Amino acid sequence: MRIRLPKSPRAPRMRPALYAAPAVLAALMGMGVTASATAEDKVYTLTIKDHRFDPQVLEVPAGEKFKVVVKNLDSTAEEFDSYDLNREKVVQGGAEGTVFLGPLDPGTYEFMGEFHADTASGKVVAK
Amino acid sequence: MWQSGLVVFREVFEAALVIGIVLAATNGLPHRNRWIALGVLAGTAGSTMVAAFAGAIAEAASGVGQELFNAGILFVAVAVLGWSVVWMRSHGREMALKATEIGRTVAEGDLPIHMLSVVVGLAVLREGSEAVLFLFGIAAQGTNVLSVVLGALIGIVGGAAVGFIMYRGLVRIPVRHLFGVISWLLVLLAAGMASQGANFLVAANLLPALGTSIWDTSQFLSERTIFGQFLHTLIGYTARPDGIQIVFYVATLLVIGIAMRMAGRPSFPKKAAGAGAAAAVALILLPHAGHAIEFKVYSPTVHYGEYALESRGFNSFDKNPAKDGEMTLIHEAEYGVTDYWQTALFGELQRELGADLKYTATAWENIFQLFQPGEAWMDSGLYLEYEAGHGQQPDAVETKILLEKPVGRFVNTFNLIMEKQLGNNAQGTSLGYAYRTMYRWKPYFQPAIEAFGEAGRINDFPGLSEQEHKLGPVILGSIPLAGSVLFNYELGWLFGLTDATARDTIKWLGEIEFRF
């Protein structure tokens, strides 16, 4: 019984699907809360003192999510900056901040303190 | 049991309405029953798959922490519930009209008969999926499974019965009133779910309680009594709420309530809107018709404490003079105010169809980062922009959902873009997207593929060939200059994918980033 298809169909087939899009994205965002870092993840501490990181080499197991708490014992702010880990985090003087990382493939990932790049540097080694 | 009954009743009733309308409009058409039945079966099968899928996600996520999972499900259910209530308010009548029209067009032979299956199938799928999602949300509140299932069964029977009765014309209830009452009940349900979700997040130590037992009515009406239970499930009554639960409850009522009011009005008053409420509505309502398609993919990550001055633009080329020589230029000043909020002011100039380059808009843009990078499975953020149009150009509110997921050295970013035009010359609401997959090879050179598109006005989606879609290679990089000053750039060549899109577009971006 087909004679012709309308030239500019209202295309109802598209609208319901597209209406679903923000819901799907909201769902993804909501799921993000659920499938996220939990209290069971390992926590490592990285201290900044005299514009240096301690430890300078952080060894972590590969393939696991973990957190790094950056404690800034100096009086001025520092930025934990790593291109390899894809993270930038400013930590004010005397404060601390958490960086969520992993799972990492085995390898070496360098980071530095952006505000004092000459002295503040280190690496994360994932095995 | 009341919750699941009410929710399922509404979904089944809506589906029954669509089916009834299609049946009525195609009365006498040979074989229409089998096509419509096919649609119902397909839609039901699809909803079952959604249920199985949701169940699988539930299994996978159950190890993550019961409270987080429950809170997540509840908030998603609130969002979808709120959106569907608002959509119903603005499109309920339209949906009925469209269903009639489709039925008639098929009856007149202008559309193939299998369109009936498509319309009916999609309606059933949509209603079924919503029901599944809401049932999960209800289950997450800890109600016992048996009562949920019982309620669902009652809802199915009730919805089908009322739908059938109305189809037969035995009772004429004005549909609008019925939907109105159901909508408000559902808003209260959503507010209750939001408050319960907040409770879970407090238990998981993710939200401050803001004071416990703000009131204590357990003497008068304990949640252990039957009536207390009834009130709890229907309107979210709690005998001893935390402060934050009250905040979530009231906020949900306000947001959905305001959205419902605005959706009911024929025009969108310019001044009364306000960027915040308007953005919330745009986010809930969806598609809209935009004026110029953007060519920048936004990451949800905010750069705290950094200032930036940016210029970006694109030039389009095409043999067809109607699409040739289009140019947009944007100059922007940005600042990362906090760890989670970045704000920017920009001016936009445009040249179209051989005219001069004209200043077209001034805009204020904000990006809200919702999680720390890596904290959630997907980095997410919200983009809110208010654009004041110059001359003939209407004002607009633009909202984007920003999602980013790194996989190894690849970073995938997706923006869902919704823009609503306001006031005179407004062309309504439109939907678009921006997407990028980028390989993080070196800080100064990162190859990527980007895609941009605009689906068009929500009320009147054009066919695919009339929409604009582009795709192409782009390089992005960050080059350190003196001191801690960075020069960030993007350069790309996008190919038009549809008839309506210009064949070639060159996009470029240059930014100086610094901190004091």
Layout of helices and strands, plus pairs?
The complex is a heterodimer of chains A (127) and B (516).
Chain A: H1 14-34, E1 42-49, E2 52-54, E3 57-60, E4 66-72, E5 78-82, E6 87-91, E7 96-101, E8 107-113, E9 121-126
Parallel strand pairs in A: 1-4, 3-9
Antiparallel strand pairs in A: 1-2, 4-7, 5-6, 5-8, 8-9
Chain B: H1 2-25, H2 32-61, H3 66-107, H4 114-140, H5 145-167, H6 175-203, H7 226-235, H8 243-264, H9 270-273, H10 275-285, E1 307-317, E2 327-336, E3 341-351, E4 358-369, E5 379-389, E6 395-407, E7 410-422, E8 429-439, E9 446-457, E10 468-480, E11 486-496, E12 504-514
Antiparallel strand pairs in B: 1-2, 1-12, 2-3, 3-4, 4-5, 5-6, 6-7, 7-8, 8-9, 9-10, 10-11, 11-12
Helix pairs in contact in B: 1-3, 1-4, 1-5, 2-4, 3-4, 3-6, 3-8, 6-7, 6-8, 8-10
Give a quick rundown of the structure.
The complex is a heterodimer of chains A (127) and B (516). Helices cover 17% and strands 40% of the residues of chain A.
Description:
The complex is a heterodimer of chains A (127) and B (516). With 127 residues, chain A is of the alpha+beta class. In chain A, 17% of the residues lie in helices and 40% in strands. Chain A contains 1 helix and 9 strands. In chain A, strands 3-9-8-5-6 form a 5-stranded mixed β-sheet, with no helix packed on it. In chain A, a hairpin with a 4-residue loop joins strand 5 and strand 6. The longest helix of chain A is centred in the N-terminal third of the chain and has 21 residues, at 14-34. Mean pLDDT of chain A is 80; it is low at 1-15. Chain B is an alpha+beta fold. Chain B contains 10 helices and 12 strands. Chain B has a 12-stranded antiparallel beta barrel. In chain B, strand 2 and strand 3 (341-351) form a beta hairpin. Chain B is globular and about 70 Å long. Chains A and B meet through helix 1, strand 6 and strand 7 of A and helix 2, helix 3, helix 4, strand 6 and strand 7 of B.
